[in-house]
Design a protein that fits this description.
The complex is a heterodimer of chains A (226) and B (197). With 226 residues, chain A is an alpha+beta fold. Chain A has helices at residues 2-23, 149-152, 194-206, and strands at residues 49-51, 54-56, 71-73, 91-92, 96-106, 112-122, 124-127, 130-133, 137-140, 158-161, 172-181, 213-224. In chain A, strand 1 and strand 2 (54-56) form a beta hairpin. Chain B is 18% helix and 31% strand. The chains are: A alpha+beta (226), B alpha+beta (197). Strand 12 of chain A pairs antiparallel with strand 1 of chain B, so a sheet runs across the interface.
C-alpha cells in the first residue's frame, strides 16, 4: 500500500517535471543568452530509376515492356520462313527465338533492391486428353533452358543496387533472358522426337481456328535498401 | 536511496517509451518502395500451319487417304484398262496458306489390289522425256529437286502454289507374262508437309 502510493507519486512528479520544463524556459537563470533562430534544412533523397529508356520518377509513371519485340531464327537473323514484315518477325513458330533485357539503372539518391516476378500464360492444345502449352523455353546467360520462367526470372533480382556518387557499388543491374521455341527435339537415339513434333503441329493447325498466343506478365518491385 | 534510484529508472523508462510511441504513430519507419503491378510484358501469336495437297482434278489428299486419278479416265464399267505401251501423267499440287514456309516430300508405291506382286513394268519421270525410270528413282529425284522445297508463306489472305507432273509409261517387259489377267493395280501416293526451319 505504501509502495503503491510512492509509485503514484513518482509518476505524478515525472509528469509535472515534463510539463514544467516546457513551461519554464530559463527564467530562473541569472545570466542568459539566446542564439536566435538557428536554421537547419535537409533535402529529401530522390527516388528514381529506369528500365531501359523507360524512366520512373513520378508516382504516375507507368512501365511498358515488350519482351517479344525481337523474334529471330536460331542464328539471330530475321526468320524468313516465318511471317514477317520484311524487317522483323511478327509471329512465333518452331525454330524461332528471342531475347529481352531487364536493364535497370538507379537514379535515386538511395540504394535500392529490384525484384522481378513473371508469369507466362499460353494457349493450350489437347492431344489424347492431355493438355499442352506452347513449348517456350527460357534461359539466362549460358544456363540450361527451362520452361519455368517464374523460377528463372528471380535470378534477375538484384538485392543491392547503389547510386551514383555513393561509392557503394554500381548503380545498375542488367539481366538478359533468352527464349526459344525449338524447331525439333532430337532424342538420345539421334531421332527426332515425334511427340514433340505432334504438339508443335497441333499448335500450327490450331491457329487456323483462332488466335493462339503466348502472354508474359511481369511484376517489378523496387525497394529502398536500409 | 532505494526510492530515488527506482524513481529515476521509472522516469527513464517512461521517456524512452514516449519517444518510441511517437515515432510509431508518425510513421517514420516507412521506406521508399515502388511496384509496377502486373505489366503485360509481351504477347505474340502462333503462326498458322495450313495447306492443301491435290491432284490435277482438285481432288484433295487427306490424312485418311484419297482416291486420286492417276491412270486416266474410267470406262463405262468404272474400270481403267492398262496395257503394255500405255502412258499417262498426273499432277501433285501443293498450296501453302500457312504463315510459315513449308516443303513437301512425296512417297508412292504400286500395289496389287489383292496383294499381287507381279505388277506391270510401270516407269516414271518428272520431265516428260522418254527417259523413264523406276518409281523409287523418280521419287528420289523429285524429292531432291527444288520442286517442293521452300514453298513460301503467302501474302495475307493469299497462297503459294507449287506443282509437278509425274509421267508414267508401261514399258513392255518379259515379266509382263506373269501378270494375272484380272490384276487390279493401285498406286498409292503420300505427301508429307513439313515446316521449313
Amino acid at each position: 500500500m505504501k509502495k503503491n502510493w510512492i509509485m503514484r507519486s513518482a509518476y505524478l512528479a515525472l509528469a509535472v517535471l515534463l510539463i514544467t520544463t516546457v513551461a519554464v524556459s530559463g527564467t530562473f537563470a541569472k545570466y542568459t543568452w539566446s542564439t536566435g533562430d538557428m536554421e537547419s534544412s535537409a533535402n529529401v533523397a530522390k527516388f528514381a530509376f529506369a528500365f531501359g529508356a523507360n524512366m520512373i520518377d513520378d508516382a504516375n509513371d507507368t512501365l511498358t515492356i515488350d519482351l517479344f519485340k525481337t523474334i529471330t531464327d536460331m542464328d539471330g537473323n530475321m526468320d524468313a520462313e516465318v511471317v514477317n514484315d520484311g524487317k522483323k518477325n511478327t509471329m512465333i513458330a518452331p525454330g524461332v527465338k528471342g531475347a529481352f533485357s531487364l536493364n535497370f539503372t538507379n537514379y535515386s539518391e538511395v540504394a535500392v533492391a529490384v525484384s522481378y516476378a513473371a508469369e507466362l500464360e499460353t494457349s493450350k492444345v489437347t492431344i489424347e486428353d492431355e493438355e499442352y502449352a506452347i513449348p517456350l523455353e527460357f534461359r539466362i546467360g549460358s544456363g540450361d533452358w527451362t520452361s519455368d520462367i517464374a523460377t528463372l526470372i528471380s535470378d534477375c533480382n538484384a538485392a543491392f543496387v547503389g547510386f551514383a556518387g555513393g561509392n557503394v557499388g554500381p548503380n545498375y543491374a542488367d539481366a538478359k533472358v533468352e527464349w526459344r521455341w525449338a524447331y525439333q527435339v532430337v532424342n538420345v537415339d539421334g531421332k527426332v522426337d515425334p511427340d514433340v513434333d505432334a504438339v508443335d503441329t497441333a499448335f500450327g493447325f490450331g491457329a487456323n481456328a483462332g488466335v493462339l498466343a503466348a502472354n508474359l506478365t511481369i511484376n517489378i518491385t523496387v525497394d529502398q535498401v536500409d | 536511496m532505494y526510492n530515488k534510484n527506482l524513481i529515476f529508472r521509472v522516469a527513464m523508462f517512461t521517456l524512452i517509451l514516449c519517444l518510441a510511441t511517437t515515432s510509431l504513430i508518425s510513421g517514420t519507419f516507412a521506406r521508399y518502395t515502388w511496384s509496377s503491378g502486373p505489366v503485360t510484358a509481351g504477347s505474340v501469336k502462333v503462326a498458322r500451319f495450313d495447306f492443301t495437297v491435290k491432284d490435277q482434278g482438285n481432288t484433295e489428299f487427306t490424312a485418311e487417304g484419297t482416291q486420286i486419278n492417276i491412270f486416266g479416265e474410267e470406262d463405262a464399267q468404272g474400270n481403267k484398262l492398262l496395257q503394255p505401251g500405255d502412258s499417262g501423267n498426273f499432277q501433285i499440287v501443293v498450296v501453302n496458306t500457312s504463315e510459315v514456309t513449308v516443303e513437301a516430300t512425296i512417297d508412292a508405291r504400286m500395289v496389287g489390289k489383292e496383294g499381287e506382286t507381279d505388277l506391270p513394268n510401270l516407269l516414271f519421270n518428272i520431265d516428260g522425256s522418254e527417259d523413264y525410270k523406276p518409281l523409287d528413282e523418280m521419287l528420289t529425284e523429285l524429292n531432291n529437286s527444288d520442286t517442293f522445297k521452300d514453298i513460301a508463306f503467302p501474302e495475307p489472305d493469299g497462297s503459294t502454289t507449287k506443282s509437278t507432273t509425274i509421267y508414267w509409261k508401261w514399258i513392255p517387259a518379259d515379266s509382263d507374262k506373269l501378270i494375272p489377267g484380272n490384276l487390279v493395280l493401285r498406286m498409292e501416293v503420300d505427301a508429307t508437309i513439313s515446316q521449313v526451319n
